UniProtKB/TrEMBL annotation:
Protein name: Rotatin
InterPro entries: ARM-like, ARM-type_fold, Rotatin
Native source organism of the sequence: Paramormyrops kingsleyae
GO BP, sorted A to Z: centriole replication; centriole-centriole cohesion; ciliary basal body organization
Domain of life per record: Eukaryota
PANTHER family, per the entry: ROTATIN (PTHR31691)
Origin organism lineage: Eukaryota, Metazoa, Chordata, Craniata, Vertebrata
Length: 370
């Protein structure tokens, strides 16, 4: 009972106090908890050798309860604390190898995956921990691509035994009733999509083919698929880097699909799709393909008619980027007139975003006039 009460108090303290997190890290809490994960895995393996016995089942249940608590303690310890995250990642310099990343946390969680799949509460705790661990931390993201200590990244090996592989499989196989787990899995993938190592693995595993095959509309409803916004958030994260922008347009049919989604002005997903379209327009290698898509250009031009200032700015900024240093483009007279009228109206506004939008429109007009 004392251990349980102490643990709960410690959970609350770590959740609200950065200084408590730092003190705990320096005292070796992260090391102790990760080592405990390994020990729990060994215990669970031993218990699984004697299934069916009441005493063994009781011990297994006790291990699983402790596992959930350890995962929660680690989550609260790592939350927005770079010092603690570094404590969960070790860098070894080996005599015969330049460098190898050994993420103790990733390698402690991976063997526990079969037990996590059998318990919804455990899976939720593990996914929450991994989301916290990988948030704004490149080395943490990369560590989930590896299959074991001292090994090369998984994309160079055929094993496919990394945490990232497991999360990809989980995200694509979950049923709609497991929406909580699906949301957490995609939140984790959105974090990982910002990492170069993870982007390479996502591409080589053809993970985004599931997005292209996604049913946008339910057969009996006009509502989009509930998983659509989750996929779009991953794509948005991917689109913040140049290599990610190129990856998106290399997917056969992705540009047309994104443009089609952006056409629905009353759709709650529209801001996400417009931002993705905006971001891919900033990659020089993508300009010809975006400008060749009449639907994409039409979507961006239509943004200028919006009464929402941020939507206007997204469209104007993307068009400015596409036309900059690129002469092979033609807009209709109606589009020219729209630009001129929008520029005139923006000069009379005094909103915070007005100056950036006006700058975009002025440069667009100048480029088109030349």
């Amino acid at each position: 009972p004392l251990k349980k009460v102490t643990s709960r108090a410690f959970l609350s303290l770590l959740a609200c106090s950065p200084s408590a997190q730092s003190y705990a890290c320096r005292a070796g809490l992260v090391d102790t908890l990760i080592e405990r994960l390994r020990n729990i895995h060994l215990q669970l393996q031993q218990e699984s050798l004697n299934p069916g016995k009441a005493a063994q089942k009781k011990k297994e249940e006790s291990c699983l309860r402790e596992l959930k608590l350890v995962l929660q303690l680690l989550r609260n310890c790592l939350y927005r604390n770079e010092e603690c995250k570094v404590g969960a990642i070790e860098w070894h310099i080996l005599p015969l190898q330049a460098s190898a990343c050994d993420s103790r946390l990733a390698f402690a969680v991976a063997p526990l995956w079969p037990w996590l799949l059998l318990d919804d509460r455990l899976m939720e705790a593990a996914l929450e921990l991994l989301c916290v661990f990988t948030a704004s931390c490149g080395p943490a993201c990369s560590s989930l691509c590896w299959s074991g200590p001292g090994h090369a990244p998984v994309q160079r090996t055929p094993t496919g035994g990394s945490v990232l592989h497991s999360v990809m499989k989980l995200a694509t196989l979950l049923a709609p009733e497991n929406s909580g787990h699906q949301r957490l899995a995609f939140c984790l993938l959105a974090n990982l999509a910002a990492s170069r190592d993870c982007k390479g693995l996502l591409q080589k595993s053809n993970f985004f083919q599931h997005f292209l095959a996604l049913s946008l509309l339910k057969p009996s409803s006009k509502a989009p698929s509930p998983a659509l916004s989750l996929w779009l958030k991953v794509l948005l994260s991917l689109s913040f880097s140049e290599d990610g922008q190129q990856m998106i347009l290399k997917m056969d049919g992705a540009l047309e699909l994104i443009a089609e989604l952006a056409l629905h002005k009353r759709d709650s997903h529209r801001p996400l799709t417009l931002l993705i379209l905006h971001n891919v327009s900033f990659c020089s290698a993508n300009k010809a393909k975006v400008l060749a898509s009449a639907k994409s250009v039409s979507v961006l031009v239509s943004c200028l008619e919006s009464n929402q200032l941020h939507i206007c700015a997204i469209g104007a900024s993307a068009l400015w980027s596409l036309l900059h240093n690129y002469q092979k483009v033609a807009l209709s007279r109606q589009d020219y007139a729209l630009l001129a009228s929008e520029e005139e109206s923006e000069k009379n506004r005094g909103e915070p975003l007005n100056s950036y939008l006006l700058k975009c429109l002025e440069n667009l007009t100048q480029l088109l006039n030349h």
